[in-house]
């Protein structure tokens, strides 16, 4: 199974770098962050970018996160936690 669509929760240093790389590799990427400035900054880079609080399950449903092939949680200060918490 080839992955074509990714959702990245958190557009900090790790999330935005991952998103840029995935787009450069030709993947569709939805970036989600509650910080409007980060979303605005990435809106011209990612396929889609939305301002939302992804800690709420209903919010994830409403943005269609389950429709993506793979998701990466890139929130918090612990980069290891981000890497080990994908929901794909």
SSE topology sketch:
Layout: E1 5-9, H1 13-24, E2 28-33, H2 36-43, E3 48-51, H3 57-62, E4 70-73, H4 79-83
Parallel strand pairs: 1-2, 1-4, 2-3
What features would you highlight for this structure?
4-stranded parallel sheet; 4 helices; 88 residues; alpha/beta; 35% helix; globular; Rossmann fold
In total, the number of strands is 4
The main pleated sheet reads as: 4 strands, parallel
Distance between the termini: 12 Å
Mean pLDDT: 87
Radius of gyration: 12 Å
In which order are the strands of the major sheet placed?
Answer: 3-2-1-4
Shape: globular
- Order of secondary-structure elements: EHEHEHEH
Beta percentage is 15-25%
Number of domains: 1
CATH class: Alpha Beta
Helical stretch tally:
4
How much helix, percentage-wise, in residues? 25-40%
CATH architecture classification name: 3-Layer(aba) Sandwich
CATH T-level fold name: Rossmann fold
Give the low-pLDDT segments: none
Output the structural class. alpha/beta
CATH superfamily: NAD(P)-binding Rossmann-like Domain
